[in-house]
Design brief:
This protein is an alpha+beta fold. The protein contains 11 helices and 9 strands. Helix content is 40%, strand content 16%. A 5-stranded mixed β-sheet has the order 3-4-2-1-9. A 4-stranded mixed β-sheet has the order 5-7-8-6, with helices on both faces. It is globular.
Amino acid sequence: MSTPRALVSNEELSVLKDPDARENYQIVLRFRDRLLAAGTVEGCYMSLFKAVVDIPPLFVQQMAHVVLRNILDGCTDPLTLRAAELLFREQKATIQDGHVLLADLETLAMHASGSQYGNLGRLIVEAQGVTGKTNLDVLERSNAESYWQRESRHDTVISLTYGRPALEGLCRVIEAWVLHFCGVKVAVTPVRKIEEPRWAWHIGLDAESTAILNALWAGEELEAGRMRRILTLLRLEFAEASEMRRDIAGRPIYLALAADGDDAVKMKPQNLFLNLPLHAA
């Protein structure tokens, strides 16, 4: 630990008798070397997606968390900060009374197993056959300040329903993310549907929404009920049309976020800088 940049040879690693421990050290060292070669967390994060990602997903998510901590430094809106968690923590989607509610997936799993109460809690859950019905607070303007006492617990729920403040917060996060990585100013607003029959460009913010938007753009039929997986639609517009590809300059970009077949939301924020139609210059 005193020399974190020290070179470690395979011969030195071979001293470790446990093969799992050796593999874990190799993974950590590979990540460290990538980080050092890039020079910045952002540079390392962006370089990951130019080839096969060879580090654990948790490392990728933690890098996004670190970058967002920098980008949103000084942000005092709890709903925006909670919405930012979508970029580095998987969520569970529920439709309740017409509202799209997102809860932290890991936290729900922890509650379902009883592990938040320790070993005794797990025993009680197993004995009672509890399947994980959990009452978590929906974060709104009226109780937003409670986020500061529980942000590390990840036990609040947000609504991404059209017109709700958390959705506006997500728009602000996406704008800041694009500005930070691409250096361009954009405005992101929620929309109920895509009005253009043949829109110019779209970006899925996860694997499921990407597949759905690609199919719709190509005029393909979607299986019954699949469209309901789309949780929110957004319109992204460049402040300066000259910063876009010339063939679609000035036209809006549509973004979508969806849940997969298990109602999990696994956002890929890297899609925003990988697929944004920027002018080559």
